[in-house]
Amino acid sequence: MSAYAADVAALARKDLRLELRAKDTLPAMLLFVLATFVVFHFALPSSAGDDAAYGLLWVSLVFTALLGLGRAWVPEREASAIDGLVLAPCDRSAIWLGKTLATMAFLVAAEVVALPVFAAFFAPLDATAVLAVLLADVGICAVGSLVAAMAATSRARELVLPLVFLPLGIPLVVGGVGATLSSQGGKYLLFLALYDAVFSLLSWASFEYVVTE
Amino acid sequence: MLSAVAVALMALALVLVFFVAPVDADQGITQKIFYFHVPIALTAYACFGWGAWKALRLLWTRDDRYDLESYTAVHQGTIFGLLTLLTGSIWAKASWGRWWVWSEDQLVLFLVLFLFYCAYFMLRFSLEPGPGRERISAVYALFGVVLIPISFLAIRLSKNFIHPVVFTRHGPQMTHTMFAAFCVSWAAMLVLAYLMYRVELLGKRIDENLRELRATLSGA
Asked: Which residues form the domain of A177?
């Protein structure tokens, strides 16, 4: 294993271990996504079809991710641990990659519960939909952990993160809803993969500028 | 000098649009807003692109004068973006009888971009001034230009309605005088945007110098 991969793994493991001990983020995300499902059950008229439910699935996934991202840099910000990480003799982008992987682990864990619940209570999900969720997770966490790092340094962090993240997430929602609803879901999966590739590369390359002074 | 050019081009554009270019057979006089709406939209793209270019220069050279230039360009782009949304909805009202249509790709794209760049100001002004803020603003401006084509593709994918497209792969579907009026109008908008950019930049620089001077005086 190269030194870079070892750094990334160590950073991601640190976040997972923190979560295992404190249990801050994941239970909150799980409860939140289930609560939004219940809210949507009452918000949807009984005449609304499956299509409307699929749309709401994507809304609740994006907001759940936002909840997780809002907590992503809290451990680093408290006691200024981020300064230590930036000074550490590793590539700065490894910090971003570690955070992206850890956030994605939380999001996927929340979805492991949320998607079967959705399929049981609202509408069935096929393999294309699950693949679309996974692809969207990559984009959400890649872009999200970068903009969350930006927002974490600002004064109004909880306020700024959704404002910054939602316009960036619109293409993901388009791709996700398209893949779930359309008969030719492959086109939308391709689009999600393109988004992931472009924005992961951009976030990976620009993270250094966000954290260094 | 620049302002004289801007005024002259704007006047020429108005003459060409209203007196020389033929009235559209299908849409009548309301089609004239096309000569303002589309150049404004293209100018907004140019401003966002210019802002991203300055942002790239900032990250590359670490020279902090690019920060103000990038910010000013994004600010002008946002103003032109708002104008695009306004003229677009006027055109939509005149053509389709509604102020807003979700099937119009470019308008929806501008709505997304407008939201994105409004968040730029929220983010920028909640950061402490300094190199950290300059870098973060620059990275954000770069994200903007990448978001433009991706969002455009997304909106194209999500649409379910075909809208008449004036520019196709076979070149513009316009007569020569219409095309000339369009080009002059676009040139006028670009010069106007550049003029506003320079004026705002000058004002911001004077502000900054004044602040530094004040700080020096009160410190002495």
From this structure: 2-211
Q: B14 at the A interface (CB within 8 A)?
A: no
Tokens of B161: 């309605």
Tokens of residue B172, six digits = 């513009």
The count of structural domains within chain A is: 1
Q: How many CA atoms lie within 13 A of B164 on its CB side?
A: 11
Contacts of range A196-201, beta carbons closer than 8 Å, 24 or more positions apart: A196/A135, A196/A138, A196/A139, A196/A142, A198/B146, A198/B150, A199/A139, A199/A142, A199/A143, A199/A168, A199/B143, A199/B146, A199/B150, A200/A138, A200/A139, A200/A142
Give the pLDDT confidence of B86-128 residue by residue, as tens digits. Answer: 998 888 888 878 888 777 778 888 999 999 999 999 999 998 8
pTM for this prediction: 0.86
Q: Are A62 and A173 in contact (CB under 8 A)?
A: yes
Whether the ipTM is more than 0.90: the answer is no
Q: Which helix (H) or strand (E) element contains residue A66?
A: helix A50-72
User: Alpha helices of chain B — where are they, by DSSP H?
Assistant: 2-15, 34-61, 65-96, 105-125, 131-158, 176-219
Contact B131 A213 (CB under 8 A): yes
pLDDT of residue B15: 82
Task: Give the nearest partner residue to A163 out of B122, B135, B150, using CB atoms.
Answer: B122
Mean pLDDT of all residues belonging to chain A = 89
Task: With a cut of 60, say whether residue B171 has pLDDT above it.
Answer: no
